[in-house]
Design goal:
Length: about 260
């Protein structure tokens, strides 16, 4: 049976590839479940420091939910559709958003619907100049269900997000960059090297400090500033007694003392 998610580890960086290229890497239930299992294993593996998530084939990162499977759930009733489709997709994007290691989406093609929502949820994203984004759920007479009505306005601003959500039109990589959906746009052949370069620049730092920053941002972003500052303080308190912080301070003072 074809693996729904391919996994490769290079130098402490896991590359996860959504592997349904004949279906434009559509997110069926089995793929989502498999990705969640792999993420759990990666989080528990101290040798893996970062994740790059991409799509198989030349056409798509992910075209979104598997509509045929989703349609069957809808036909079975709202409760079934909520349980099997909506909650499953929201678990995935929430897991990616709160992941304790950086997840970089390498968007290699179409990122529609759920594929766009994955891009919204991950820590960082780089888009190929061949990528294409869309929020097409309105064309099915439904709202996004994997977090798109919540994360996109937080990234892009309310009115700019609503234009995309209410029209369903596609938008190119430069627009995604402008909206804050991706960090960089690169030539297609440079996509994976750029993703690895970004990951390597991150993983040179303390894993505990990386996790503390990711946690503080993910938890604090949706809270009032006072509560967010408490989350930040709590994360610092966790780092204060660690050898990582002591070593970082000692190294800084040594460089300062040497005039370098």
């Amino acid at each position: 049976m074809t693996e729904l998610v391919l996994e490769e580890v290079r130098g402490g960086i896991a590359v996860l590839t959504l592997n349904r290229p004949e279906k434009l890497n559509a997110l069926n239930y089995a793929l989502i479940d498999r990705l969640l299992v792999i993420l759990d294993a990666i989080e528990a593996d101290a040798s893996i420091r970062a994740v790059i998530l991409t799509g198989a084939g030349e056409r798509a990162f992910s075209a979104g939910a598997d509509i045929q499977q989703f349609s069957a759930s809808v036909a079975a009733g709202a409760d079934i559709a909520l349980r099997d489709f909506v909650m499953r997709g929201q678990r995935l994007t929430a897991r990616l958003e709160a992941f304790s290691k950086p997840v970089i989406a390498a968007v290699n093609g179409i990122a529609f619907g759920g594929g766009c929502e994955i891009t919204e949820a991950v820590s960082l994203a780089i888009a190929s100049d061949r990528a294409l984004f869309a929020k097409p759920e309105i064309n099915l007479a439904m709202p996004p269900t994997f977090g798109g009505t919540q994360r996109l306005p937080r990234l892009a601003g309310r009115k700019r997000a609503l234009e995309l959500l209410l029209t369903g039109g596609w938008f190119p990589p430069p627009r995604a960059l402008e909206l804050g959906l991706v960090n960089q746009v690169v030539r297609h052949e440079e996509l994976m090297p750029a993703a690895f370069d970004l990951a390597r620049r991150i993983v040179t730092h303390s894993p505990a400090a990386i996790a503390a920053i990711l946690t503080a941002v993910a938890r604090g972003l949706n809270q009032p500033i006072a509560e967010g500052l408490q989350v930040e303080a709590d994360q610092f308190a966790r780092m204060a007694p660690t050898a990582d912080l002591r070593g970082g301070l000692d190294a800084w003072m040594e460089r300062k003392g040497s005039g370098s």
